[in-house]
Design a protein that fits this description.
It is a single chain. It is elongated and about 65 Å long. The two termini are 34 Å apart. The protein has five helices and 21 strands. Residues 1-11 and 16-32 have low confidence and may be disordered. It has 360 residues and is an alpha+beta fold.
Length: 360
């Protein structure tokens, strides 16, 4: 008798997801990357003049980049999938800069607050993005490259032709070998063909793919799924929400006085909560104070208790933390064994805005 076939959605790129088939309890073909290309020419590199601003560099043009190998990295700073690729991209930028590689990060926002150049500048400093960044708040470069994913790599040869792309996480060895190949083609001497070794810390650490059973989940009404609260979500006005007695895996619910809009839910009165039943090593939440300069204290519980050794980098062992800016917060990093857990976050004052859960 054939075993029943199940499916679970696991995000490999921000904003999108892939379906992982499960049969007889075993993951089949679980791979974090979404897709990669060969090194055949895919067309000329589009112009970069649609950026609204540049960080860490003067504005760069395709003409002045001729003769260089160029890696274009599309990112948005709240994307956990991009954050986990950053140590590799940073290492390539450092290792191959002297041999002719130019790394350009194109920051195209997912959420409205990521359009703010000051927010992008602060995130770049916090995460250690020190290579040139084209701030693409109007999505001009996104459209010019016909891009659809965060993260997305495009590698351009010295003649200005796109020779390789990769969407999603992973395939780091393949991508680095393409960099090496194109540098040699461009005339670089003594290219080191060893591969970089990186060990990301905090949210930059590689995902625990073997234990990942929870998908990226949006709180804003435009893309919300698996909400389990009585009466569903009410959009555009305040509502007093209540959490059901029990949540099934990957269900979530609000408790307290919240106003849910397209992108986010905003807490109107103190002591509002969000619960989520999840299965993953890491739990992150994209969130921040609704008003700049007005921090919001919060506390986190896992299975009804302070997280202790399972706390993430943005809370302490007692589960205490503070919303100080709009970004992704790592709230849980639990030791094995990884099993279904009940997560809860309580905001002790009003004014928090919550956008999405991500896992790793």
């Amino acid at each position: 008798m054939r075993a029943p076939r199940l499916a679970i959605v696991v995000a490999t790129v921000c904003g999108l997801a892939t379906v992982i088939d499960l049969q007889a309890g075993k993951k089949m073909g679980m791979q974090p990357p979404l897709t990669s290309s060969s090194t055949r020419a895919e067309g000329p590199m589009p112009a970069l003049d649609g950026a609204v601003s540049w960080l860490n560099s003067k504005p760069l043009s395709t003409a002045e980049l001729r003769g260089k190998v160029v890696l274009v990295d599309f990112w948005t700073y709240t994307c956990i999938n991009w954050q986990r690729t950053l140590p590799h991209v940073r290492a390539w930028a450092d290792k191959y800069k002297s041999q002719g590689l130019v790394v350009i990060g194109v920051h195209t926002p997912e959420f409205r607050f990521e359009r703010d150049v000051d927010n992008v500048r602060a995130a770049s400093a916090r995460l250690g993005v020190d290579y040139p960044v084209a701030v693409d708040s109007e999505q001009a470069l996104w459209r010019a490259f016909h891009n659809e994913y965060w993260p997305a790599l495009y590698i351009v040869d010295a003649r200005g032709s796109i020779r390789y792309h990769h969407f999603g996480e992973g395939r780091y060895e393949q991508s680095e070998k393409v960099i090496q190949q194109l540098l040699v083609e461009a005339g670089a001497k003594d290219v080191d063909t060893s591969l970089v070794r990186v060990d990301g810390a905090g949210s930059l650490a590689d995902g625990d793919w073997d234990d990942l059973r929870s998908p990226e989940t949006y709180v804003g009404a435009a893309r919300a799924e698996n909400f389990a609260g009585p009466g569903g979500l009410t959009v555009g006005r305040s509502k007093l929400y209540a959490t059901p007695e029990q949540l099934r895996l990957n269900q979530w619910a609000l408790a307290g006085d919240w106003k849910v809009e397209d992108e986010a839910a905003t807490l109107e009165r103190a002591n509002g909560r969000i619960g989520f039943r999840f299965h993953a090593r890491d739990l992150h939440l994209v969130m921040g104070p609704a008003a700049r300069g007005k921090p919001v204290p919060f506390r986190v519980l896992i299975d009804g208790k302070p997280p202790g050794p399972a706390h993430g980098s943005d809370v302490d062992a007692e589960g205490k933390g503070m919303l100080v800016e709009q970004r992704m917060y790592q709230l849980i990093r639990q030791p094995k064994p990884i099993v279904d857990r009940q997560f809860e976050i309580e905001f002790l004052e009003p004014g928090s805005q919550v956008y999405s859960f991500t896992f790793g």
